[in-house]
Write a structure and sequence with these properties.
A 7-stranded parallel β-sheet has the order 3-2-1-4-5-6-7, sandwiched between helices. Strands 10-9-8-11-12-13 form a 6-stranded parallel β-sheet, sandwiched between helices. The protein has 2 domains: about 170 residues, Glycogen Phosphorylase B (Rossmann fold), CATH 3.40.50; about 180 residues, Glycogen Phosphorylase B (Rossmann fold), CATH 3.40.50. Helix 3 packs across helix 4. It contains 16 helices and 13 strands. With about 375 residues, the chain is of the alpha/beta class.
């Protein structure tokens, strides 16, 4: 039997990497002998996370499109030329039966190279608003798996398949229970617990809001699990060294996120598409703070899709210093509202998203 060869391209943030790894895991479950190759961007976190999960990865020398004209544009074009050439070499040597793009800088060159060789391509669009790269790639892609309604505004409707976003396998297959989850962090099952996450790299404005409200946190007695992100961890530890309250835990990165979700009464988070999909599976009340530093303000659009269904609360980034902790400390004790938010967000969960995407890959691949 011929060995199945699949390329998965993209990355840049955990929001792209974790769904990609979920897809790879389902492919391995179905086709244990499959050869799965990742293609990412040099210097980005996929170059560390993907090998740690046991997969091969090749990095392309690619960067994001500069927002303003200038010298960076020349660097972008030079790196894009090199990446296109390298992507063509990868396709020629690996000869995949299908190429899957999950978003991120590396998806563009790799999927373009694949389509030139008439290799089937599938895009996994995670956001409610398609970015420029996926809009371009979508014109030639064979199928586009989406997680939000109304995506025909960006892609040909006959290519769209509504699957939802993949989430980390541990979130689907493990339900640790409140007592075990709280106990993992050294808390009791009857403690009120708030989880604050800013993405895998962190979010400066959220971290600064914690610093500015640290006395309020201490006085509240509510337990707070704070993931600063790897980029800000050392700085946050230093800035809280003299006044950190006992009810505040600081983490660089939480590997057992299913336990963090299981422990939390309220979750504070950015509104990346992958994170929102995880939060829907977790089914916990969430306060979303869309990042203002993303293309086309897509996180606000993601968050609004939930808020319109009374499944999340939104606080603007510029208002969090003043409003965030007043809101969440009031919410954590408001049982009726907590239950309402929890029930509504659970309705939006798509626990079979990864399997449905791999169903499409299986149908499309030429093996």
């Amino acid at each position: 039997m011929q060995q199945k060869r699949i390329i998965i391209s993209g990355g840049g943030t955990g929001g792209h990497i974790f769904p990609a790894l979920a897809i790879a895991g389902e492919l391995k479950n179905r086709f244990p002998g499959a050869d799965i190759l990742f293609v990412g961007a040099k210097g980005k976190m996929e170059m560390e996370k993907v090998p740690a999960a046991g997969y091969k990865i090749i990095g392309l020398p690619v960067m994001g499109l500069p927002r303003k004209p200038g010298l960076k544009m020349f660097k972008f074009l030079a790196m894009l030329f090199k990446s296109n050439r390298e992507a063509r070499r990868i396709i020629r040597e690996f000869q995949p039966h299908i190429a899957v793009g999950v978003g991120g800088f590396a998806s563009g060159p790799l999927l373009q190279a694949a389509t030139r060789k008439n290799i089937p391509t599938l895009i996994q669009e995670q956001n409610s608003y398609a970015g420029i790269t996926n809009k371009i790639l979508g014109k030639k892609a064979d199928k586009i798996c989406v997680a939000y309604e109304n995506m025909a505004n960006y892609f040909s409707s006959d290519k769209i398949i509504f699957t939802g976003n993949p989430v980390r396998e541990g979130l689907l297959n493990q339900n640790p229970g409140r007592q075990a989850a709280a106990g993992y962090f050294g808390f009791n099952a009857d403690d009120k617990i708030i989880l604050i996450i800013g993405g895998s790299l962190g979010a400066r404005s959220i971290n600064n809001a914690v610093l500015k409200n640290i006395n309020l946190i201490g006085e509240s007695g509510v337990k707070v699990i704070w993931q600063t992100g790897s980029f800000y961890f050392d700085e946050m530890v230093r800035k809280t060294s003299e006044n950190k309250p006992e009810n505040l835990q600081i983490h660089k990165f939480i590997n057992r996120m299913e336990l963090a979700y299981g422990a939390a009464d309220v979750i504070v988070s950015r509104a990346g598409a992958g994170t929102i999909s995880e939060l829907c599976i977790a089914g916990k009340p969430v306060v979303l703070i869309p990042s203002p530093n993303v293309a086309e303000d897509h996180q606000t659009r993601n968050a609004m899709a939930l808020a319109k269904k009374n499944a999340a609360i939104i606080i603007k980034d510029e208002e969090i210093d003043r409003n965030l902790f007043i809101t969440i400390l009031e919410l954590v004790n408001y049982e009726v509202r907590l239950n309402q938010l929890s029930e509504n967000i659970k309705k939006l969960a798509k626990p079979d998203a990864t399997k449905r995407i791999v169903d499409e890959i299986e149908k499309m691949a030429r093996w």
